[in-house]
Write a structure and sequence with these properties.
Chain lengths: 312, 504
Amino acid sequence: MIPTAQAAFRRLFSEIGPVDYVGVEERVAKYGTRSIKKSSKLFGLKMAVSMIDLTTLEGKDTPGKVGSLCQKARHPHDDPAVPAVAAVCVYPSMVKYARRALGEDTPVRIASVATAFPSGQAPLKTRLAEVKSAVSDGADEIDMVVNRGAFLAGEFQRMQDEIGAVRETCGEAVLKVILEVSELETYDNIRAASFLAMRMLRPGDFIKTSTGKTSLNATLGNHQVMLEAIRDFYLDTGTPISMKPAGGIRAAKQALQFLVAVKETLGDEWLNNTRYRFGASALLNDLLRQIEKEKTGAYQAPYYFSEATESY
Amino acid sequence: MPTLTERKPARPNVRSAGRPAHELIFGDLWDFDPAPETADPKLKPRYDLFIGGKFVPAASGKYFDSINPANEQKLAELALGGAADVDAAYRAAQNARENVWGRMPGRERAKYLYRIARLLQDRAREFAIAETMDNGKPIKETRDFDVPMAAAHFFYHAGWADKLEYVAPGRKVAPLGVVGQVIPWNFPLLMLSWKIAPAIAMGNCVVIKPATNTPLTAVKLAEIFLDAGLPPGVVNIITGPGSTGGLLMAHPAAAKIAFTGSTEVGKVIMRSVAGTDKRMTMELGGKAANIVFDDAPLDQAVEGIVNGIFFNQGQVCCAGSRLLVQETVVERVVAKLKNRLRTLRVGDPLDKNTDVGAIVSRDQLATIQGYLDIGVNEGAELWQPPCRLPAKGFYLPPTIFTGVTQSHRIAREEIFGPVLAIITFRTVEEAVEKANNTPYGLSAGVWTDKGSRILKMSTELKAGVVWANTFNKFDPTSPFGGYKESGFGREGGRQGLLDYCKLV
């Protein structure tokens, strides 16, 4: 008997359990009411800085722009108490420029979105070749997109085999699997896809919400569903999978709410940049601005922060 | 504060050989600083009785103290009302009823209710803080639930006041007269509002006694009545001990009495008015079953369990104090529940991050602790998350009991505290049997992914409210009340209004 898509979904859902949309939204609304002040706020803000994958994914990216992004990543602010960010995240063609800018001996890692980002609509052979080239150009981490078409058709084996192939191609590089939550549409599907991906990953590999290239990106709701999947998977298997929300997180306040969710769902061991990252660009300067505000009591003008796009 | 690099998650030191190596650590790597709500609750040192639109001292001249259960400090003293004061209050109410309120058109009465609702919204923060200080419940609950919901009841019933001809289609309705009301300490302002609003919207006048432990927001609401220009005598507030409540219920001038409180006291009141033609509504105790089936969304169910029994420290008549879990998922549910409880923050109710505050009084705390002993002595297994409780004040960590059966006292009696009894079941029939095997019937919860099962359960469970895939949800439009010994009569919605009128 040929397994139908419906049977495949039924089997998977009954294995991992359903998610109630209303309940999730109610849970995450409580994160927004946590009041984080003074030294705990400062700690949270600096922790968020250290977790950023500082990202530029534009058609108009140039070696020069990537170079200045790398400098910002290494040295976000003049305040020496502000840590470097976790990584820069660029297209594969830009990896070698990032490596040139950062050098070999640097705490800032280089992540690259390979596998025909953001749609993934290229032959597997092409996608693997892209991963291979990014890794050989010096990428430490690979952000891949899953085959949503295969997932939605119930072809879970194909989706997982592709993740496995990319993982093998990565070699030592850390793998981040982008589920592209907006194209999965339901929380049940997001939970299901998280489990399928995690079963193919090594400890320290990531699951990631989205590419940032569609209308809906990381929200507290889909983030919570993925955190709970990571928690259940860890308690069942002992394999700790890392988490990366991406897209749409622009304000420090949002970042703190995401971190509260991590603190209260996965606990202290996920509050570091090997277990948790933010895929963001504008977020960094808002975090720096809030850090300055905590220290001086006043908001600085945007032009006091390098690489600021907004001004008066 | 240590820097980022210095801080490492603190692993538990002792790990016995049998335990699995992986568990979550909810430590203080990133601790939250205190975030106390600091606005002024605007409390006076002394409050008198509110009779006939004026604050007047009690005939006895005596006062009693109201203390803050979070730190045992005195907040204010209140007039100790007695028989003479109750008489005076009923006279004022009758006078208002005959000369002003009863004659006023509904659309005019509505204006006063709208005004009260808006004034309460204007002073929401002040009322939330006063309520938290008086009762011990967390500020996030008073701020996000008690006060907004109290205002919502005035708004909702204001909307009804000029549409009373639609309450009972085809019939005409008339107010009952003067209504005597006694309310408990668990939702002082909210109970006050959902008792007063329907009564006065319908054209009745009210004599009401707030609980002895928590009278502050009631006398503060009297200030709002004055500001709103509510005609004198429409609402009269008598503070005092339980015995004064008894006088208020038994008073011959009361056309109807409405009581919310324990089943025990409810029975005493009903005995005292037996043989009179008083109307009654009683909203009494509960021992609600929260039923989790194996196909339920478990993480959201756990959230609902927490909300069901630890909301307001479990001091809720409709609290989901019995958790019925299908056998196949009980281990998973209990494990998830324990992890969730590890992240609850117990402590200063005025801190905006506090999830579980203080128990209302020393007596109540002793009662609950007595039940913990009973549970342990009867062989149930007690579990509490590790938490640091403040040195002063009446605190109890969230508590769960596993290995509980229907015959355990902790599964039969209303504890009225943050204590959950976990019972298992195998089939749907068994779940219904166990859920209904109680003298109470106020509320129930059903957690399942199967819609048809929700409908089946909601018809078979003998409870006034059945929540599906949620718990402790309230709305002024939705009638609330019990089956069996949980009382009779409904509050809220059209049904609630019907209990404050006669059909002519």
